[in-house]
Design brief:
heterotrimer, A alpha/beta (346), B alpha/beta (313), C mainly alpha (677), B: 313 residues, alpha/beta, D-Maltodextrin-Binding Protein, domain 2, 2 domains, five-stranded mixed beta sheet, three-stranded antiparallel beta sheet, 41% helix, disordered N terminus, C: 677 residues, mainly alpha, MetI-like fold, two-stranded antiparallel sheet, globular
Chain lengths: 346, 313, 677
């Protein structure tokens, strides 16, 4: 599944304090937590390395203060990292001139903000057309393109409304339309739905998936909500105290958490929607009845397996070859994870 | 805009403003200084209107009574119709040194002195001279000055130190300075309405004489010796034991550029001359009849057409 | 409070407090005793020795005289440069004059000034466009007032300066504000200058500006711009610094260049704060334009001073109300413009529908010009409104007659009230004012210096202390100690009275909506009403003296005490008050044990503002007759002693800054403790 690497980050550090660069030099680029504390520096991002692949949804998850927002601001160069390397399609992001950086932002990057970041003095149309306007695109064209984007996010007819006259969900739709107006290659979303009510949030998540199914962008998405992360992500990077603790698929996180911190998140995750049949199936048995595909999430086959009288056969993605079997106990254990009756008994 | 007007309005409305104007030397506006007392305002308008009728452009600029002279020396302003010896002498003379032109003296004489409303004479009949006034000093006292009488003096920056005179004449008075002329009149009005004894600084000609009845208090007539020779005057041990001159000059002043720039107008301002009665009449129209200074100027010019005509001959 | 917070060990707690306080009070006592003792053995501690006095005032005067007479910059006379600037500034003033009251004859156009009908209709129509019918009504009636009360031409003269000064001050203010947000050096230099400029009384600007520039409207314009500009710069800084980071980042991610980020994102996003700044510029401009009449500005202020000089109080009040109305109209219009909602359905309407306000105005404009060709009253409103002609004339309205009745009423009141009020005035003067003044005049400067320094150190730390010490030293060593103490005495007493009057009124307004509805508009009016109108009634009732001075300060300086108390009480979180109610506090207990302690920091900031305003007013009450710093400022205008005037203005500002730092530090600390910072 992974496409080409679009963004490559190596050993990113973002340190706040009196003289961050001098501090990093004194500690050979790898200060300890003790050193940070002693000298009164804050390591918002510490030694983070990862790649973002073409077309994937990479979600960076962490609690507030974990450094996830700082990280996305480093990548977009809203904040420059203290040390480290960043490449975008092989170009060194940190060596870009002002002009080149603006150029990349104008054509390649799009970003959505937690508090929407809409311009209060412009109506919906003017907000969405804003990135096109600063590029100097002619009025007729930018209105045309902005209108298309507004229709895409379902706000057609409200072009002349001002942000303050819209609900939070609607405002974020404007934010999304604006970030997509330049047809970016990479789409950054910084806690886009965190400021919204739970119901609206769920609706916007579906909307997001709908858009992505049409647009196939490369996405870096920040959230503090593990459930949201597992619902939307191809891969999730979990951050704690500035460090990337684990970067893996949701399934791997749930099944093989790297440490207790990740396990704590994984415990409450909706496993039935994360874990696929293939990840927990056993060896094929002849007694198996019916068939479920190995790529299916266990939630979607649970009823079939739990009501079956014995193990159910598992087929490969094409549905032609039997690759394993699954039974009631396995499914139950997987769904309830550490919380099921077996676990308690053990 | 103009075309539109012409289209809409009847042609008859487009009457040329007034009669044809005489040729004048310069279209540059003559800036006439205006101060904040009535007679000066009315007389400024009178002179201004005369010059305008001759075809000159006139503008009026309000100014402080002290600052104006330097501004005239600098050619920022061009003409002042009333310069008073009593309160403006030093600023006037300094400005003349710096180039301002002294355009001559009016017939009117000015006087600045202690002054009492006439009702004071009912309780202090001798108050028309300083010794009589001093005898009933306590009548004029207030909580702060008791037992001394209170003399309400002019603003401190008018260059008169009455505290010194009180000391020289050994009077039982305390001089309290006001911040501005209006304060004097407020004190006077308040006391006058209540018939309370008051003695304050006043001068003539001004609007006060048309509104309030009163008299100046006589002090020893000043002679140069009063200020040089301690033995002169009532107090043999002090200088300055005398009053202010009974008749001070009232002058006109012009900017250095005036004569060159507008010789015709200069000839007029040289001739302009007001008497005490004329000045008081002008002030009365505003202060008693309630006219605006500009209206009063027109009315004054109507009444005194011959005077005005004599300037422009 | 202590009982409630430390119920277990009240004794120990109490002891702790007194122990901590003792050394501090001891230090204060030590300073006072040492200072007084010093003054007994050394006269120099009572009055700074003349031989050591820094002749700074003289240096400044000499410097300015040198500037205006001899100085050259690259071979060009300095005076020629300022004259050049003056001439350049005259141009916009001239055009505003042509438009508003002179007409265009001078530039060869046969076109009169805007007829008053057009101006009045224009303002009303604009008011309707930005604020609906209510605002239109307010503005329309105000314009009618200007037309009927015989002040139109002078109002337009005043507006001439306003329409030129406001855009200039706004433009310079925004530019400086942007600069400060971009450059740390600029912030370090300019921010304290703004503090100083705003704390310096209006009048102190006049003499030096008048000296350097040509006398007349340009001087008024420059002084006005200098005075009105800082609030714009401050609001620009505030606006730019408080643009939400999301908005800025959204702009950056949209690919804005730095310039685009400023002009398309940051500035427009802070429109409301900027409009607030503009609003303040308008108000300050109007305040200054009135005072500038002392140094050569024509218009309402000039006429007002003249009316007062003639004791025509009724006319002065009519003119003062005109100034207030202009201020209120401009205030409401700028505010309404800032909050104006945009029409969503504009695109569905016809051109004429969208521009109906503009069209209506154009029709009235043309119509009134045509009318003005026939009738003079359509161009400039007449002084009396008369119906009919000849013998059948009926006077409908005569502002002068009304004014005369007002004059008489004031005088009658004065005669009646004097007998009752004067004993009070005498008693207060003899037993309070004179003793307090004598105390301040006796006070050895080391005592004042030491006590204020120690207080500054306690409240604000070393930097505040050093600032206060420098400011105090400035008036001690330059020989202004006596004048400064007289001002201090006057302002402290006035401020105390303002608090005594203002705080209860503020509490009342906060408690009763109905009271608030009456008190708050009165506050608005008091602040826009030209302050020197109070002077004459004050003198008539109280005679010259400090009592009259203080009385004239109070109406103006009480306003912040009322406002801040009101706001402080209103801003207390509802839960705090509800908790008090739930605990069974009576109304009085709630006020004294809950609300006032929580609102105290805010009220103290009100006191701070009250002191600032009282200081500003000392320059105005100097017109009554005083011998303090204010008098020095006013006198310098006519004596041309710029050094004394500038220094006196600076020391008034210095007193304000000292009070501001002391109270501000205290309030900030207290707010921090209360967790409401």
């Amino acid at each position: 599944m992974p496409g080409d690497v679009q963004i490559r980050c190596r050993n990113l550090w973002k340190v706040f304090g009196a003289d961050p660069r001098g501090f990093m030099r004194r500690h050979d680029g790898r200060p300890t937590a003790q050193a940070l504390r002693d000298e009164g520096y804050i390591g918002a991002v510490q030694d983070v390395s990862f790649d973002v692949h073409q077309g994937e949804i990479l979600i960076i998850m962490g609690l507030s203060g974990s450094g996830k927002s700082t990280l996305i601001r480093c990548i977009t160069r809203l904040n420059d990292p203290t040390t480290g390397e960043m490449e975008y399609e092989g170009r060194d992001l940190l060596k870009l001139s002002e002009r080149e950086l603006i150029d990349i932002r104008r054509h390649r990057f799009g970003m959505v903000f937690q508090n929407f970041g809409l311009l209060p003095h412009r109506d919906v149309l003017e907000n969405v057309a804003f990135p096109l306007e600063v590029q100097g695109i002619a009025r007729a064209e930018r209105v045309d393109r902005a209108k298309k984007m507004i229709d895409l996010v379902g706000l057609g007819g409200r072009e002349s409304y001002f942000p303050r006259e819209l609900s939070g969900g609607q405002q974020q739709r404007v934010g999304i339309a604006r970030s997509l107006a330049v047809e970016p290659d990479i789409w950054f979303l910084d806690e886009p739905f965190s400021a919204l009510d739970p119901l609206i949030r769920a609706e916007m998540q579906d909307e997001f998936l709908r858009l992505q199914s049409m647009l196939h962008k490369t996405i870096v998405f920040i959230t503090h909500d593990f459930e949201e992360a597992t619902k939307l992500a191809d891969r999730i990077g979990i951050m704690k105290d500035g460090r990337m603790v684990q970067l893996a698929t949701p399934e791997e996180l749930v099944l093989n958490p790297a440490d207790d911190y990740v396990a704590e998140f994984a415990k409450n995750a909706p496993r039935e929607r994360i874990v696929s049949v293939g990840a927990i199936m056993q060896t094929p048995t002849d007694a198996a009845l019916g068939a479920v595909p190995m790529t299916a999430k266990i939630g979607s086959v649970a009823e079939q397996v739990l009501t079956a009288d014995g193990p159910v056969a598992v087929t490969d993605a094409s549905g032609e070859r039997i690759v394993g079997s699954i039974d009631r106990a396995t499914v139950t254990a997987a769904i309830f994870g550490g919380r099921g009756p077996e676990a308690r008994a053990a | 805009m103009k075309n539109l007007l012409k289209g809409v309005a009847v042609a008859a409305l487009m009457l040329a403003p007034g009669a044809a104007m005489a040729e004048v030397e310069s279209d540059e506006p003559i800036i006439i200084v205006q101060n904040n007392w009535t007679s000066q305002l009315v007389l400024s308008y009178v002179v201004g209107k005369v010059l305008e009728d001759m075809g000159y452009t006139v503008e009026y600029a309000p100014s402080d009574s002290q600052l104006q002279f330097q501004a005239m020396a600098d050619n920022d302003m061009d003409f002042q119709v009333e310069a008073w010896e009593g309160s403006m002498k030093s600023a006037f003379e300094k400005a003349v040194e710096n180039g301002m032109v002294d355009v001559g003296t009016h017939s009117a004489e000015t006087r600045e002195e202690w002054w009492i409303p006439n009702y004071v004479l009912e309780t202090c009949p001798e108050a028309t001279n300083w010794e009589g006034l001093n005898a009933c000093a306590e009548q004029f006292s207030t909580a702060e000055t008791k037992p001394n009488g209170r003399f309400v003096g002019p603003p401190a920056d008018w260059g008169k130190n009455y505290a010194d005179r009180v000391k020289s004449l050994e009077m039982d008075f305390e001089a309290i300075n006001v911040g501005q002329a209006a304060t004097l009149w407020a004190e006077l009005q308040s006391a006058y309405d209540r018939k309370e004894p008051i003695v304050l600084f006043n001068w003539t000609p001004n609007f006060i004489e048309s509104k309030f009845e009163g008299t100046f208090v006589d002090f020893p007539k000043p002679e140069p010796a009063c200020f040089d020779d301690a033995s002169w005057g009532p107090n043999p041990n002090a200088t300055g034991d005398c009053g202010a001159p009974h008749s001070g000059w009232l002058k006109k002043a012009a900017s250095p550029r005036f004569e060159e720039e507008w010789p015709g107008a200069y000839a007029v301002i040289e001739k302009v001359d007001f008497s005490n009665a004329q000045i008081a009449a002008a002030a009365l129209m505003v202060d008693v009849d309630g006219m605006e200074p500009e209206e009063a100027a027109e009315a004054w010019m109507e009444k005194n057409a011959d005077v005005v005509a004599s300037w422009t001959e | 409070m202590t009982e409630a917070t430390a119920p277990t060990t009240p004794r120990a707690d109490g002891e702790g407090v007194s122990l901590a306080a003792l050394p501090l009070w001891g230090r204060f006592a030590a300073i006072i005793v040492a200072g007084v003792l010093l003054s007994l053995v050394w006269d120099g501690a009572t009055r700074w020795p003349e031989a050591w006095t820094l002749p700074l005032a003289q240096w400044i005067t000499d410097f300015i005289n040198w500037l205006k007479s001899e100085a050259t910059v690259f071979g060009v006379e300095f005076k020629a440069i300022t004259r050049g600037i003056g001439t350049a500034l005259e141009m916009p003033v001239d055009w505003a004059e042509y438009l508003l009251y002179r007409g265009f004859k001078k530039v060869g156009l046969d076109l009169g000034p805007l007829p008053w009908i057009a101006v009045a209709a224009g303002v009303t129509i604009f008011a309707h466009w930005v604020g609906g019918w209510r605002l239109a009504l307010l503005c329309g009636l105000s314009m009618l007032y200007l037309a009927t009360f015989n002040v139109w031409k002078d109002a337009m003269r005043t507006m001439t300066i306003v329409v030129v000064a406001v855009p200039m001050a706004a433009f310079i203010g925004i530019a400086l504000g942007i600069w400060v947000t971009r450059s740390k050096t600029a912030a370090r230099i300019i921010s304290p200058m703004f503090d100083l400029m705003q704390a310096t009384p209006h009048m102190a600007y006049l003499a030096p500006v008048a000296a350097l520039f040509a006398f007349g409207p340009v001087t008024a314009l420059i002084a006005t711009v200098v005075f009105a500009m800082p609030p714009m710069a401050r609001c620009t800084i505030l606006g730019l610094q408080t643009v939400s980071s999301d908005v800025v980042e959204a702009g950056q991610m949209s690919g804005c260049t730095k310039r685009q980020l400023l002009w398309k994102v940051a500035l427009p996003s802070s429109k409301r704060t900027l409009m607030l700044g503009l609003n303040q510029v308008v108000m300050q401009t109007l305040a200054m334009v009135v005072i500038a009449s002392i140094a050569g500005a024509t218009g309402l202020g000039h006429k007002l001073l003249y009316s007062l000089q003639q004791l025509r109080l009724g006319v002065a009040i009519e003119q003062g109300i005109a100034i207030s109305l202009i201020a209120i109209v401009l205030d409401r219009l700028t505010q309404a413009y800032a909050y104006k909602e945009t029409d969503h359905f504009a695109s569905e309407k016809t051109w004429a529908q969208r521009h109906k306000h503009m069209l209506l105005f154009l029709v009235i404009l043309v119509g009134s010009y045509v009318l003005a060709e026939f009738h003079r009253w359509a161009s400039i409103p007449p002084s009396k409104f008369v119906w009919g002609a000849g013998d059948a004339k009926v006077v409908l309205f005569d502002a002068k007659l009304l004014a005369r009745h007002m004059d008489q009423a004031i005088r009658d009141f004065n005669v009646v009230a004097f007998d009752y009020i004067n004993p009070i005035r005498d008693w207060v003067t003899l037993w309070i004012l004179i003793p307090v003044r004598n105390f301040f005049l006796w006070l050895p400067w080391p005592v004042f210096f030491g006590v204020v320094s120690l207080a500054a150190w306690r409240l604000g730390g070393k930097s505040v202390m050093l600032l206060c010490m420098a400011l105090m030293a400035s008036f001690i060593v330059t020989g202004f100690w006596v004048e400064t103490m007289k001002t201090t005495y006057l302002v402290l007493i006035a401020a105390a009275l303002c608090v005594l009057i203002g705080v209860p009124l503020g509490i009342w307004a906060a408690r009763s909506e109905r009271a608030a509805k009456i008190i708050m508009p009165i506050c608005d009016t008091l602040q826009t009403f030209p302050s020197f109108i109070y002077l004459i009634p004050a003198i008539m009732l109280f005679r010259i003296g400090d009592f009259a001075n203080i009385f004239a300060i109070i109406p103006y300086a009480t306003v912040p005490a009322i406002r801040y108390t009101y706001l402080g009480l209103k801003r207390i979180p509802a839960v705090t008050v509800e908790a008090g109610i739930a605990n069974g506090a009576t109304r009085m207990q709630r006020l004294f044990k809950v609300e006032l302690p929580v609102a105290l920091p805010e009220i103290m900031l009100g006191l701070n503002q009250t002191i600032m305003m009282a200081l500003a007013m000392t320059a105005i009450t100097a017109l009554i007759g005083s011998t303090d710093l204010g008098q020095e400022v006013v006198r310098s205008i006519s004596t041309q002693d710029f050094g004394r005037g500038i220094l006196a203005g600076f020391f008034i500002a210095a007193l304000g800054i000292i009070a501001d730092r002391l109270i501000g530090s205290w309030a900030a600390e207290r707010k921090r403790q209360l967790g409401v910072a």
